[in-house]
Amino acid sequence: MLKIENLHVAVGDKPILKGLSLDVPAGEVHAVMGPNGAGKSTLGYALSGRPGYEATEGAVAWRGEDLLALEPAERAAKGVFLSFQYPLEIPGVPAMTFVRTALNAQRRARGEDEVSAPDFLKRVREAAKALRMDFDMLKRPLNVGFSGGEKKRMEILQMALLEPSLLILDETDSGLDIDALRIVADGVNALRSPERAMLVITHYQRLLDYIKPDRVHVLAAGRIVASGGPELALELEAEGYDKFLPAAA
Ligand code: ADP
Ligand code: MG
Ligand code: MG
Fold it and tell me: What keywords were assigned to this record (predicted)?
């Protein structure tokens, strides 16, 4: 479903990803783990099409289509969703308005009608309830003054409403206490489906106790240097990333 081959990404003139290859079949959840600064967020940005993180070499196929040839909005319309490590704060734009705008942009790009106000309200209420979010919070400016956990729930709420087919979660566990982690993981697990692929980017193994990956990959020095089953995450937790670094250099 997702096929990344020999991906190279430079930020400015600094090479960050240097020949990364990775396949995620439909219905599977793959974890990408790696030390700080390894390029995990860069991978998420490159897949979502963030300006400044363009590929200089390599190919990414998504459902057989050349993902790298698409504009960020076209990728979103095709169901690519990146949940940010550091969610954006937007003063002046109520969270609910932001989500509705994103949903309608996706629909327009797909040639669909915009969502009606009552329908949107119903869906956003249901999603907020499932994530145990206070509905009034959604009337506040997006993420402004939200706690780390509230911002992450906000990301998952957007994700639930946009129903993406390729989910990329970047350090969704950072800033979450155990209760919030469970709720967020439940939200993500509810989106597991044979039609979807998920990439869970994380520095720590903890999140993977709640979101069980089919495969675990180690990203170091800009490439995938090891892949294995869920036991690889436990091994990394116990032994650290050091043993993968010389092999990568
Ligand atoms: P990770 O998410 O694995 O911690 P990142 O993808 O955030 O790693 O960063 C990888 C490397 O790229 C780091 O050395 C980081 O400093 C650098 N980098 C990322 N974004 C930028 C940027 N906008 N400007 C300069 N350097 C960047
Ligand atoms: Mg980091
Ligand atoms: Mg990161």
Answer: ATP-binding, Nucleotide-binding
